[in-house]
């Protein structure tokens, strides 16, 4: 990750400044405020602001004016009940704003989560830095033969090196041309909003991304999953660590019921019941398609 001396000084100043407040404060999140967490080769995630904590979730669920006489164990039981039964509104009472620096192709995948407020670095107004995502060799893989949107076996030896060389050469050449088109040395220079079209999808962009906890959990359930693309999963895993420190009870329930749990269709429930009665059930008499049965077996054997 590349941070300038000015950026490091700004972060140090932000972390050294504090103010008193009457609102709920989460000590775990306070430790993360403004601190950049490195992701990939030049990326970062840092918390700019947040609202609420575990108690904000239970307070909203009870619609009370304070903590009352409830114990922590009661709060944990309530949060786990809310998560277990898919109640979303109480989790929407907590919000967080992230500053994220990420490759453009990751951003285009990320932006599909439309339940957030986003403000991205403007390449119409400013000039993008010469920073590109180049994968580590262990993340260079061939196309999967069973999943059209996944990776298969790792590339090795000369083939892996050839791909890495092409990625670096193409990125640098496109940025050289970007600078040449922008240059006003002896020419008018192309407008920034036009020159940017020549840049590759692995160049880094930045944005502020603000969302509530319910929608953040939805993002993390999909993007921190082992089947998610590695590059966006790397960001999601860092964010999981931050959320765990922010709302530990809610995050524990999320890990149990969303990340570690499994959903069953009505047909899947019936198959489990039949198996428990001692029946041998195959795909042919399960009522499931081949794809459904394959996914069912992956979970339940």
Automatic annotation (TrEMBL):
Entries under SUPFAM superfamilies matching the protein: Thymidylate synthase-complementing protein Thy1
Region (Disordered): 1-20
Self-association state and partner proteins as the record states: Homotetramer.
Lineage: Bacteria, Pseudomonadati, Pseudomonadota, Alphaproteobacteria, Rhodobacterales
UniProt entry keywords in alphabetical sequence: FAD, Flavoprotein, Methyltransferase, NADP, Nucleotide biosynthesis, Transferase
GO biological process: methylation
Summary of the function given for this chain in its UniProt record: Catalyzes the reductive methylation of 2'-deoxyuridine-5'-monophosphate (dUMP) to 2'-deoxythymidine-5'-monophosphate (dTMP) while utilizing 5,10-methylenetetrahydrofolate (mTHF) as the methyl donor, and NADPH and FADH(2) as the reductant.
Molecular function GO terms recorded: thymidylate synthase (FAD) activity
Pfam families, alphabetized: Thy1
Protein name: Flavin-dependent thymidylate synthase
Residues where FAD binds: 89, 112-114, 120, 212-214, 218
Pathway this chain belongs to: Pyrimidine metabolism; dTTP biosynthesis
Record's catalysed reaction(s): dUMP + (6R)-5,10-methylene-5,6,7,8-tetrahydrofolate + NADPH + H(+) = dTMP + (6S)-5,6,7,8-tetrahydrofolate + NADP(+)
NCBIfam families given in the database record: thyX (TIGR02170)
Cofactor note: Binds 4 FAD per tetramer. Each FAD binding site is formed by three monomers.
EC number annotated for this UniProt entry: 2.1.1.148
HAMAP family assigned to the protein according to its UniProt record, in alphabetical order: ThyX
Keyword Ubl conjugation among record annotations: no
Cofactor: FAD
Family: Belongs to the thymidylate synthase ThyX family.
